[in-house]
What does this fold into?
Amino acid sequence: MLAVQASDDVSAGRLLRRSIRHWLIDRVRKTGEGALRRRLEQVLAADDAFERVPAGEEGAGRWRLAGTEVAPWSGRLADLVEAARAVPRVRIPQWSSSTRRSPVADKASIVAVARAAFQAAGGSLEIAQITAVFATRFPVVLDPVIVPIPADPDAVARDVDPTPEELQVAADEELDSGVAAAEIVGMLSPAERRLLPHLDDQPTIQKILGCGRSQAFYHAGRLKAKLVQLLGETEDMRAVAREVIRLCRESERDG
Amino acid sequence: MSDQGVPARLFELARRAQAPDALSDHGLRARFGDPADAVIQVGQVWRARWDDVSVLLLILATEARDVLAAPVSIDPPAEDERCIVIDASSTAFAVEATVWADMAGSVPVRVLERAVDQWNETIADWILQRSGSGGDLPQGVRPGRPISDEFGPSALVRAEIADDLDALVRAPGLPAATPGEQRQDLASLLRGKLDLAALCAALDLPQPKVIRIVRGKEPLTTDQMAVVASITGLTTEQVAQSVRPLPLGLVVKAEHPRWRPAWQQRARTYGITEAQARLTASYGAYALAARETRGGEPDWDQRLREFLRDETKPAGES
It folds into this structure.
């Protein structure tokens, strides 16, 4: 690669840095896929909703919905991913450790998403196929960096004259939002925390990352998708998102 | 996300890595001749480079100052459904090569540096026609595999290539004259209010050179433009536009990759950028041609050679 594409040390150095970066990304993803695959196998084996296709049957060793006799699936992965995305109220558990990879989702959510994928497939699936569906549905598990941004995070209306009960509820919600936001911020890398307050400011992202507009667009899009995934589909997601952004901005100011 | 430095030992390891013989300098000369005699042809794969940005390009069509080309990548392995992938046995790279066919676009000839491979022309033909009827892929070519993750590694490679192409297209070119274009030199713009002595002092240049600048016959650096603007009261844009553009024929020749080794050598000799080396030499060749009385379009390659030859003569030699 270097021999072909680089003609001096400057261009070779840039290409080499890029190669190393891609290699590191690939290694992180492969590690994540292995962990995801093991987690999925555990959940599928422990839940009565699924079963392995027994030896002697077509597709032996694959997984299917329990009690069905279906042929091996061989369709478009995108169809299964679409079905997985349609499952509502999927939860990502909180971090239990700052060094662990982010968990893909809680067990009930994994079961619901897997069931949706099997139903969409109408056939038995290899564990690698199920893993691919989850890896696409939950990109957070394959990358140490994350985030989701609501379309309009400032559009939450506030009551003009709250009652004392409403004030208490609001205070509780604010505390919950603050805790959830702090947990999410803790799951972001330093680079992501710097980027987050500027997701709609492409020139600033380019400046922070030292890249061109296409890479800035890519990184901003990925960060938004991850934030959406981390926020989940909770009622207070907008409040949490606002708090996450505020915390990141403060973190940036504090330097 | 950050682009950190490369450990020296990795850099050295990569430097020592063996490349296929066909891609060594000797191999490239055997296949494509001396770089100073390079000819750009459809189906060739060129290394395009400007500053620290380098991209492989498959030439689809050629024009005077631009080529229509599609970016090619070989490392890291990346592809999506908009790509085509060339079999390892069909290239000199000894690995599969991905052509980002939908990213094909116009790229200035001035960033082409060296031809590194020659592919069957049917591949270029197929890419050019794919927006129409498409048709079966040429032998040794397969469609790219679709990506399932819109933010996966292949998407990042695509973004990197797009940024690299943007950077190459922005590489500075020579100012070329267009038919019917009227430009006012500094002397006309200042209409007799020119303080030549002040200008010489501010630019720290001898008077003959400053006179050439005033008449629009000498290129200016960005810093010099700012100095002239501050002395004359003109805007920097007015000063920039006062420089007489070069004939298109000269520009086409000077921007051809066969001249790049000479510009790069000249840049090293004088401690200037490649763009400055090309710009000043081109104006030098233009001045040389202007002193001739023969009519017709000059042989610009010859004028460029003469300028460089005279420039490198030892002092005192006539």
Remarks:
- The first strand of chain B starts at residue 44 and ends at 50.
- Chain B has two domains: 8-169, 186-311.
- Confidence is low (pLDDT under 50) at residues 314-318 of chain B.
